[in-house]
Automatic annotation (TrEMBL):
Pfam family, one: Sigma70_r4_2
Residue ranges of every copy of the RNA polymerase sigma-70 region domain listed in the record: 3-65
Segments passing through the bilayer: none
UniProt keyword list: Sigma factor, Transcription, Transcription regulation
Keyword Cell inner membrane: no
Family: Belongs to the sigma-70 factor family. ECF subfamily.
InterPro entries: RNA_pol_sigma-70-like, RNA_pol_sigma-70_dom, RNA_pol_sigma70_r2, RNA_pol_sigma70_r4_t2, RNA_pol_sigma_r2, RNA_pol_sigma_r3/r4-like, WH-like_DNA-bd_sf
Record-linked PANTHER family: RNA POLYMERASE ECF-TYPE SIGMA FACTO, RNA POLYMERASE SIGMA-70 FACTOR ECF SUBFAMILY
Protein name: RNA polymerase sigma factor
Segments forming domain RNA polymerase sigma factor 70 region 4 type: 111-161
Organism listed in the record: Paenibacillus gallinarum
Amino acid sequence: MDDYGNDVWNYAFFLTGSRDHADDISQEVFIKAYQGIHTYRGEASLKTWLITITRNTVHSYRRSRFFRQSLGSKLYSIDDEKTAGSSALSPNSRIAPSAESIVMEQHYENSIWEIIMSLSVKSREVLILALKYEMKIHEIANILHISEGTVKSRLSRAKEKVQKELGRRAE
């Protein structure tokens, strides 16, 4: 949990859009991993195995009545802890960034995450796995049970949608 807890929680959040659901799913993932560690074959990294368990748990969770009933339209924002780190002094600078630049950076990051969270689950999933978790195309294909070509096309379309929306918002 120390090594991969944040990755599991973040991925669950990206798929569900809910902090509460991400908390529940993360706990369930590590219980499943603990109970099923004897099934881990070592063919993929431990992180990939946990991400796969997370994805499968989210899909099971989505099918549950509780999840369907508690879902509503939500506004998504980036985790406050992630943006808090941007206010620290940069290693190459002795001057702290201005409050205005911090707010502008946080607003930009929030806009990006808002756009990403508005993508379809299929698009969002490949984008997050590739960019956030730095997984290779073949790893993503294995996790999602789709071809590498499908991963590439979804990733390309997702990046294009994010770039277009950022450009539209900048105007």
